Amino acid sequence: MTLNELLPVVRKLSVSEKLKLIRILAEELDTNEDISPLEPFKTYDLPTPYNSFGAGEILMQTLKQSE
C-alpha cells in the first residue's frame, strides 16, 4: 500500500485514533537506529542570530522603512 492510498483512510480516523497512530509510528521510529544523522557526544556548529550584525542592520532598515 502506498502513502497516497493510505492518506484518505487516515484522514477519516477520529482524533483519538490519529493520536494513537502517531504514537505507534513514533515508537517504531524510536526503535530504529538509523533515523538521525547526528552522532552522540559530537559537537555541531549551528548558525544563530548572535553576533550577526549584518542581519541586525538589515532588520533595522526594514523597520525604519515600514514606519
SSE blueprint:
Elements (H helix, E strand, L loop, with lengths): L2 H9 L3 H17 L21 H14 L1
The low-confidence runs, each spanning 5 or more residues with pLDDT under 50, are: none
The helix count comes to 3
Q: Give the class from helix and strand content and strand pairing.
A: mainly alpha
Helix content: 55-70%
Task: For the record, give the distance between the C-alpha atoms at the N and C termini, rounded to a whole number.
Answer: 55 Å
For the CA atoms, what is the radius of gyration? Answer: 22 Å
Q: Give the overall shape, derived from the CA principal axes.
A: flat
| Percent of residues in β-strands | under 5%
Summarize the biggest pleated sheet.
none
Q: Average the pLDDT over all residues and give the rounded result.
A: 85
- Total E-strand runs: 0
Order of helices and strands: HHH
How is this structure best described in words?
- The protein has a domain at 1-34.
- Helices cover 60% and strands 0% of the residues.
- With 67 residues, the chain is mainly α.
- The model has no long low-confidence stretch (mean pLDDT 85).
- 0% of the residues are buried.
